[in-house]
Amino acid sequence: MTEEAVAIRRELADSYPDRYRPDLAASLSNLGIRFSKLDRLAEAEEIRGEAERNRADYGGA
After folding, report:
1. In the predicted model, what is the mean pLDDT of the chain?
2. CA distances from 50 to 24, 29 (A)
3. Contact predicate 38/20, CB 8 Å
4. In angstroms, what CA-CA distances link 58 with 15, 22, 26, 54?
């Protein structure tokens, strides 16, 4: 479910970055947490990095 939310929000953020980039960053953060809990640490680190970049892009960092 979380991966689906990220995929949808990526598409929305591509079309409407000012509106959906914050939502994408939040979804990415949630996905990173889930990956960590599943011991998928490399994926979690990559996703968290993407979340941080998206937050910085819209000034939410």
Report:
1. 91
2. 9, 9
3. no
4. 15, 7, 12, 7
Cα–Cα dist 7/15, whole Å: 13
Residue ranges with strand state E in 1-61? none
Interior angle at CA 30, CA 37 and CA 28, nearest 5: 120
CB atoms within 10 A of CB 21: 23
Compute the residue count for the chain. 61
Query: Which residues, 6+ apart, have CB-to-CB distance to 57 below 8 Å?
Result: 17, 21
- At position 11, the amino acid (one-letter code) is E
pLDDT above 80 (res 59): no
pTM of the predicted structure, to 2 decimals: 0.85
